[in-house]
Request: fold
Amino acid sequence: MLSVQNLSVHYGMIQAVRDVSFEVKEGEIVSLIGANGAGKTTILRTISGLIRPSSGSISFEGNEIHKTVPQKIVASGLSQVPEGRHIFPGLTVQENLEMGAFLRKDSAEMKTDYEQIFKKFPILAERKTQDAATLSGGEQQMLAMGRALMSKPKLLLLDEPSMGLAPIFIKEIFNIIQEIQQQGTTVLLIEQNAKMALSIANRGYVLETGKIVLEGTGAELLASEEVKKAYLGG
Reply:
């Protein structure tokens, strides 16, 4: 579904991503794990079209997208939930969800999808008319995920969904990610909480200083001594 081949990205003279290759197959949850500064967010932003690669290629459903503008990438069925959530303050919960559907023209289906989002995230239904900025961190993360799902993505990119959340919300967010996959959306997950990320992943890749150093199934990486020492506290 998604194929990243020999991807390199520079910020000026600094090389943030070095010759990275990986793939995401339809129906999978794939986790990219690594320390801060490993290049995880840069990879996601490059897939989304927000950053141009120095070299390499990215293809989605057989079409090259690394030279495509972000709105066309979204329209093709790929949506990102950014790190830090980036909900729209000053807009209500409902209006934030509407922003996620701005490229859609199927108003009858959209009504059903709003109902589905409120079913999946009941707290958002309760806060529908509230300014999104007044939500807690966990509620804002749910809103950011709901907003991304309103674009009806085939592939959902999640950037650090557990960042800054209380443990009770982290568990809930990861349960929702699994539910999203079970309902037919493929997920590429970037996460510092390696244990949680690998526990729900079909496959995973470990990034260090901009390059992939390990890959395997979620279970294989959880059992790896290298991963345990570096990311799972021994």
